[in-house]
Amino acid sequence: MKAALPKHALIAQALEQDLASGKYAVGATLPSEPELTQHFGVSRHTVRAALRTLQERGLITSQQGLGSTVRAASATQRYTQGFASAEDLLQYVAGTRVVSVEKRELSVVGEELAAWLGCKPGERWWHVVVLRHRRDEDTPATLADVYLPYAYGALLSELAEHDRPIFRLIEERFGEAIAEIRQEISAAMPTAPEAAALQIAAGEPVLVIVRRYIGRHGQVLETTRTLHQAARFTYSMNLRLASGRQP
After folding, report:
1. CATH topology for the 86-229 domain
2. Are 119 and 155 in contact (CB under 8 A)?
3. DSSP code, position 29
4. Helix/strand/coil for 243
5. Does residue 4 register a pLDDT over 80?
6. What's the CA gap between 194 and 222, in Å, rounded?
7. Cα separation of 176 and 174, whole Å?
8. 14, 35, 46, 136: most buried by Cβ count inside 10 Å?
9. pTM higher than 0.85, yes or no?
10. SS3 assignment for 101-165
């Protein structure tokens, strides 16, 4: 395991090795969150982030009150997402423009936020809020919380000048490469300020997309949480059977 990785990634690797070795058989239940917390000497938030990683890889299933059950001994991916480029993943960028960049903050990341961001506690990260409008309209399209490591702070002054994704600027200016993009999609009720920024009713739900951009060495280069008006945004993707297999 690489010491440079955040704690939750190290724990996920350790548990994945246990699954591959047969320590926990398919159908078995993993130790509880309190047991894993004590075993690894980390917070419960870190353990949950590690379990979420295993769940995203299809290795376990988790149910409240029942714990985490082993689904597979090794990660398999039968279907692949049919995107021609990483920009296709951000389906709102091409038709929108940056209107404002607000709430620029630099802070030391605590344990809970670190587990969510996918970094190590004690690191310094920037947090900015970016509002985008539709290109030819004065209508809000997205509201995004953008989190960047301290080293990329120089890009903040350019956010309003570029319609390109931030991760592309990170690649160009800092010689990084995005090796993986992890995405979570859910529905949520916006806070009052979020609803006001999107010009929707306080009780109207929004679509929430969280993305973590992972570099070649497993480090998180950017984390975003983007809110979309549910009534005006549809997220679409194509799934294709991998490796030429036939159903």
Report:
1. Chorismate lyase (3.40.1410)
2. no
3. B
4. helix
5. no
6. 21
7. 6
8. 46
9. no
10. EEEEEEEECCHHHHHHHCCCCCCEEEEEEEEEEECCCCCEEEEEEEEEEHHHHHHHHHHHHCCCC
> Whose structure tokens read 């390109």?
164
60 close to 70: Cβ distance less than 8 angstroms: yes
Q: Fold for domain 7-70?
A: Arc Repressor Mutant, subunit A (1.10.10)
- Look at the block and give the residue holding tokens 């404002």: 100
Among 142, 158, 153, 152, which Cα is nearest to 174's? 152
Q: Which residue has the higher pLDDT, 76 or 101?
A: 101
State pLDDT tens for residues 62-83.
877 778 999 888 875 444 444 4
Q: Please report, for residues 14, 23, 88, the alpha-carbon distance to residue 17 in angstroms, rounded to integers and kept in the order given.
A: 5, 9, 33
Can you state the angle between helices 7-21 and 44-56, rounded to 10 degrees?
50
In the chain, the amino acid numbered 239 is L
* Cβ count within 10 A of residue 137: 11
CA–CA separation, 66 and 219 (whole Å): 32
Q: Which 3 state secondary structure label does DSSP give 180? A: strand
Give the start-to-end residue ranges of the domains of the chain: 7-70, 86-229
**Any bridge partners for residue 241, and if so which?**
79
Strands in 96-108's sheet, in edge-to-edge order, are: 96-108, 124-134, 140-149, 220-229, 206-215, 178-188
Between strands 178-188 and 206-215, the pairing is antiparallel
Percent composition of the chain: helix, strand, coil (DSSP 3-state, to 5): 30, 30, 35
Tokens of 14: 């350790």
- What are the pLDDT digits (tens) for 14-33? 999 999 999 999 889 999 99
* Spacing of C-alpha 83 from chain mean position: 18
